[in-house]
């Protein structure tokens, strides 16, 4: 499909792409670049690519597909470093969890001769680093592409085909809309998890040890999310500020209503909300988009595929693994 794939950043997502692209024969050669020599050595030891470069400009030389897989805060520096070395006609993409900021930062730095098609696979885990990736990560997950109007449709279709070959469903979206949707479905859930685990961490020592000792599945599930990479998530909240604040405003209003219902002992209001939310959970499961129980119980660094949706549904009914 591609002659040379260059991956800049080789953590959970970059290494999962490397593994899946290799498995499905999607690139003749895979060039890997990352900032630290230690991570590059790890990637080499895992056999993730064909060439390994500390200099990202060397990695992108002759590449017809370049994908940035670093935390979003590194994009500007990486784009400055590779811009002059990009091959005319190359597709330049990324996997960042925010999109409007990525367009704002990268677009002015890129030569007009490349096809710039930002992307976001909505698939991941709380683990990071080259050993955390696995080739099945993208199977049955969405990958959102956010090209500007006027982008070559053939280039968009080629990149969409790359993601489909790794098992993803592809949707094209406006970057601002992407950021609003992901703010409520992904970014705020992470913020809530960081907050609740932070609250426990600030409790006095004796209470804290009891919380840890008796932690029920609800709190345990939050700790999984709150174990996600601090740098990556710092960058998400720095770069999707407006959408996160907008959705957080609505969230706070709803939390106040819930607080009032608890204070007033308003059973019908509580039950009505919990019934509506249970229905949402079931519609997610039925749509085959269940991720929590399916993906996140897997041990760090193994290549065990995520269970098929049918298995996940069974677990959901019987196991009580979900928050
Ligand atoms: N972790 C997740 O579940 C998901 C993450 N994403 C996005 O994917 C991107 C990467 O995330 P992960 O793979 O989870 O992170 P990670 O922490 O596992 O890997 C990041 C990689 O980038 C490298 N790196 C950092 N700064 C760099 C720089 N200046 N130049 C070159 N390399 C640099 C690191 O050495 C590492 O190899 C982020 O933008 C994130 O928003 C998207 C979907 C899911
Ligand atoms: O680990 C989790 O619960 C996730 O939600 C994974 C994830 C993290 C960031 C993304 O941009 C997309 C998916």
From TrEMBL:
Belongs to the prephenate/arogenate dehydrogenase family. It comes from the Bacteria. It is an enzyme of class 1 (oxidoreductase). Residues 291-323 are annotated as: Disordered. This is prephenate dehydrogenase. Residues 3-292 form the Prephenate/arogenate dehydrogenase domain. GO terms for molecular function: NAD+ binding; prephenate dehydrogenase (NAD+) activity; prephenate dehydrogenase (NADP+) activity. NCBIfam families: PRK07502.1 (NF005694). It catalyses: prephenate + NAD(+) = 3-(4-hydroxyphenyl)pyruvate + CO2 + NADH. Pathway: Amino-acid biosynthesis; L-tyrosine biosynthesis; (4-hydroxyphenyl)pyruvate from prephenate (NAD(+) route): step 1/1. Keywords: Amino-acid biosynthesis, Aromatic amino acid biosynthesis, NAD, Oxidoreductase, Tyrosine biosynthesis. GO terms for biological process: tyrosine biosynthetic process. Its EC number is 1.3.1.12. The keyword Cell membrane does not apply. Residues 313-323 have a biased composition (Basic and acidic residues).
């Amino acid at each position: 499909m591609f002659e040379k794939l260059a991956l800049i950043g080789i953590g959970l997502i970059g290494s999962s792409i490397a593994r899946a692209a290799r498995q499905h024969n999607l690139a003749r050669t895979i060039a890997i670049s990352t900032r630290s020599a230690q991570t590059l050595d790890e990637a080499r030891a895992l056999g993730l690519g064909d060439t390994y470069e500390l200099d990202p400009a060397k990695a992108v030389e002759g590449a017809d597909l370049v994908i940035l897989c670093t935390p979003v805060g590194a994009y500007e520096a990486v784009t400055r470093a590779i811009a002059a070395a990009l091959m005319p006609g190359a597709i330049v993409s990324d996997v960042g969890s925010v999109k409007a900021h990525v367009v704002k930062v990268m677009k002015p730095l890129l030569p007009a001769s490349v096809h710039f098609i930002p992307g976001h696979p909505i698939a991941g885990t709380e683990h990071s680093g080259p050993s955390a990736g696995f080739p099945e990560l993208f199977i049955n997950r969405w990958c959102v592409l956010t090209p500007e109007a006027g982008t070559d449709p053939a280039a968009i279709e080629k990149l969409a085909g790359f993601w489909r070959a790794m098992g993803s469903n592809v949707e094209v979206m406006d970057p601002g809309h992407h950021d609003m949707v992901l703010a409520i479905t992904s970014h705020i859930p992470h913020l809530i998890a960081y907050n609740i685990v932070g609250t426990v961490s600030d409790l006095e020592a004796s209470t804290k040890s009891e919380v840890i000792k008796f932690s029920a599945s609800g709190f345990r599930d939050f700790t999984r999310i709150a174990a996600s990479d601090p740098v990556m998530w710092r960058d998400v909240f720095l770069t999707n500020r407006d959408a996160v604040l907008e959705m957080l405003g609505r969230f706070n209003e709803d939390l106040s209503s819930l607080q009032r219902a608890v204070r007033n002992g308003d059973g019908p209001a509580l039950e009505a909300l919990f019934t509506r939310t249970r229905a949402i959970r079931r519609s997610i499961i039925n749509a085959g988009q269940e991720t929590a129980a399916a993906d996140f119980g897997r041990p760090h660094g193994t290549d065990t595929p995520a269970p098929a949706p049918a298995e996940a549904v069974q677990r959901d009914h019987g196991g009580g693994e979900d928050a």
